[in-house]
């Protein structure tokens, strides 16, 4: 993917975010660069609208590596605004984050898939008077990245992707790939497919996409966070898969768009059945995420995503990363910082910084509900 084209797409995505009005921030005023504003008892950063409220000390969090680049931005900005506050987020994968959450080791977990019923039950031991809930916070495309000399524009469909990752298509000049790319000079070389070695919501979302979009060719459990297909090579985390694709000729793998963007990795366009192949961009992911429906009840905002969409310009390999916290029963010593931090990440300011990093904004209806629920955490 050419950098110039990517920059243009990012600018388009940023414009779409501004128009959508997905999130509205209610914040206290800011002052100059020499101090803090304590009017109304709320500290704010110099030249920032971030509300610190009663945030203090350190909170621990862990989970999704899909949102690591988002977290890095959020944490940097939040800590700069709120003196003496530290948010320590470990990108250990969604499965590891949920385990730490249900064991009471972290204030919140990041996961690219909603809590399973058994995980909700487990969370009740930690959330003494409540349970863990799913708060969608950032969306984006799962890019299919590749490294193939001489091929700058690669189109695949769900069937070919399923067969590649299931070790049924093994060479780049396979007739199925050639048919989708009649003008490409595809080499007679082996495909080096990389997948996640750790439990991952990114893996689960790819499973769901392939199970729904190519059911005849992908028979693996769509609910599994672990990679189940035979063959291929494993790497830890999205960063590990991206690094392997970056340095391995003839390779292909899956990871969030932010990893492809930061390492200038070419990404596959999807033939979804729409009039034209769809590129992995924040804007195109937003079009697909906009069709999401809330399936959770009460304060739980777990979403149902449409992986089979054929809407023009909608990129269907998507994920939404949830921040998982107790609705009730959070630890009193970490609750103020937890709420202040999540209030920031859900704000317009918090969302706006993500677009250039390859993430997609939350739909307006869902974003509004997140902003209603975070202040009620107790």
Automatic annotation (TrEMBL):
Biological classification of the source: Bacteria, Bacillati, Actinomycetota, Actinomycetes, Kitasatosporales
Pfam families the record matches: PBP_like_2
Gene coding for it: pstS
Organism of provenance: Streptomyces peucetius
Entry keywords, A to Z: Phosphate transport, Signal, Transport
Coiled-coil positions: none
Annotated protein name in UniProt: Phosphate-binding protein
CDD domains, per database record: PBP2_PstS
Protein family membership: Belongs to the PstS family.
Domain of life: Bacteria
NCBIfam families: 3a0107s03
Signal peptide: 1-27
All copies of domain PBP, residue ranges: 55-349
Gene3D superfamilies, A to Z: Periplasmic binding protein-like II (3.40.190.10)
Keyword Signal: yes
């Amino acid at each position: 993917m050419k950098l110039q084209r990517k920059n243009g797409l990012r600018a388009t995505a940023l414009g779409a975010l501004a128009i959508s009005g997905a999130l509205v921030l209610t914040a206290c005023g800011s002052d100059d660069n020499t101090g803090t504003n304590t009017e109304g008892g709320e500290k704010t950063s110099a030249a920032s609208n971030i509300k610190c409220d009663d945030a203090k000390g350190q909170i621990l969090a862990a989970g999704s590596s899909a949102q690591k680049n988002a977290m890095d931005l959020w944490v940097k900005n939040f800590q700069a605004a709120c003196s003496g506050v530290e948010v320590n987020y470990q990108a250990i994968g969604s499965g590891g984050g949920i385990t730490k959450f249900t064991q009471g080791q972290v204030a919140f977990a990041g996961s690219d898939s909603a809590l399973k019923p058994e995980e909700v039950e487990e969370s009740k031991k930690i959330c003494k008077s409540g349970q863990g809930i799913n708060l969608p916070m950032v969306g984006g495309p799962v890019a299919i990245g590749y490294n193939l000399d001489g091929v700058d524009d690669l189109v695949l469909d769900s069937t070919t992707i399923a067969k590649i990752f299931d070790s049924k298509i093994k060479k780049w000049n396979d007739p199925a790939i050639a048919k989708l790319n009649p003008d490409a000079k595809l080499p007679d070389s082996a495909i080096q497919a990389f997948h996640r070695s750790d439990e991952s919501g990114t893996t689960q979302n790819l499973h769901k996409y392939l199970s729904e979009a190519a059911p005849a060719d992908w028979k693996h459990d769509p609910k599994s966070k672990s990679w189940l297909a035979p063959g291929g090579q494993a790497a830890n985390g999205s960063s590990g898969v991206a690094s392997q694709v970056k340095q391995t000729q003839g390779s292909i793998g899956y990871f969030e768009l932010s990893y492809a963007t930061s390492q200038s990795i070419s990404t596959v366009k999807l033939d979804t059945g729409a009039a034209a192949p769809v590129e992995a961009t924040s804007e195109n992911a937003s079009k697909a995420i906009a069709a999401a429906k809330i399936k959770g009840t009460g304060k739980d905002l777990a979403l149902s995503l449409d992986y089979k969409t054929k809407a023009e310009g909608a990129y269907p390999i998507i994920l939404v990363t949830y921040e998982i916290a107790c609705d009730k029963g959070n630890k009193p010593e970490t609750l103020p910082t937890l709420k202040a931090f999540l209030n920031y990440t859900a704000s317009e300011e918090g969302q706006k910084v993500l677009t250039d990093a390859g993430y997609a904004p939350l739909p307006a209806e869902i974003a509004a509900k997140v902003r209603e629920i975070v202040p009620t955490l107790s």
